[in-house]
């Protein structure tokens, strides 16, 4: 058997082994590639899936039905134990059906590698645990299995405990890990629960207190709309239903408008300007966990509804309901070709991802036979005219058993309900609890989440039946959260958004602006440009092409080209190069009455941009960019060097870390 122990999604910085490409074909829409500046390169991201293998050549004579294709991803699944189940005899009597049953039962005379209709990869051997027969590692873990990951593991804070509230935990916790950031609990909280500190948010937390501000963020429906909510109305498709988008497809195409692109643009706008920041952070979190790419076949009609009706609907609610809703949504079913899975020709795409990515994980305790059984249970779920439908006539009837879940599945009409009971079983499984807990700890605490914290979060998830808010409160009341200052590095999208936020860029258009195209408002044109920029950086909302979402660890994004791109973006943002937005002039950033000497001016500018005081040595070094002596007299523009110095500050660890 081929050794597939290398990571599935990435190449480590120090790894020589080639990653075996994913064998499944994901049908996706790919926007035209953006143009790059000569000095920029897109950030490295996990490789896109390679095209599917070429179909086998037909035999000269093929009097029987189409052969069952047996493979790891795009496959006709075998039916485990089918001969003993009702209806199995008739299926096995067909030549293609007999081959699938042979494969499912693991009969020694059936060799998938010798089958010309097979891709030669039957997946993990049936009956063996993924923890001992691995085709790949969990995504973040795969990146951390490197020298850089080993170095980061040394920063795990020792010990850990839960306090009665986040504010008490913040007050009682000492920071012992090395970091470039000062331990300011307010700044730490805002850096992790928003897309970047602003003067307003820092003042809000200081005014109402840590506990009250968190309570407000956990109730986003009570937070007043901001001006961006009005601006979002200019994205004409944002509130359209699937039926509306289907009916107006030709009209929208003629206008050059795509609902999936407007969904991405609206998400970026909300990340920058919405006051419901924790909600937007959790939307981004779930988009990486229960991931459907922004662009795939059918996404122009389907993807914005998935964002609205699945991810945003349950982002701060509960995961079991989210998983059930996702498995009834045409976006997920279309992306993973679920309509092609019927009782006669069973495919495992959605069944495998529900186990491997959307619930228990690769080490969650399932076997290859569990995948096949799950695929049988999910037959009948389909998409017709861009709508989810359940087709009883396509549903396999017969007892199924997946891990600890079993169901008699005795009627075709009852198959849909049986599937939903299974999804809730998965969502409430202890392995799912631990996996979501680890992902949350990785997002909010560090790339090397403390095991004790993960266990406490998993316990909270289990006790609260998958509810999100209690788990977040458990995390925010932990000493591990407050001790992890500076242990997360911003990914490209997070960097751009944080830069716009700290610079105080406004979505309002200056009166002096003249639109280049009458077909788009200035705000819409600006959001299109930001979407394109993030595509260049390799990181935009729901942008990962495969089903795994983006990695959330520093080593996945570290490269020299990333730093160059960040510097270019910082310079553009400080200089206000997207004139459809309103910027503060560089000379305003250091305050209404900026200091009169170079080093003091730089200190005021740093306080404004990174929300902490820098030590004098750092200030002198940064001031050197201006060519001025530390004590040199300066005007409101830092003698013309304000843009250059601001750019350096925004490329510093104090802005790159969160």
UniProtKB/TrEMBL annotation:
Residues 63-73 have a biased composition (Basic residues). Residues 228-262 form a coiled coil. The keyword Lyase does not apply. Residues 1-73, 106-134 are annotated as: Disordered. Pfam families: DUF1800. Residues 44-55 have a biased composition (Pro residues). Keywords: Coiled coil, Membrane, Transmembrane, Transmembrane helix. The keyword Phosphoprotein does not apply. This is DUF1800 domain-containing protein. It comes from Phytohabitans houttuyneae.
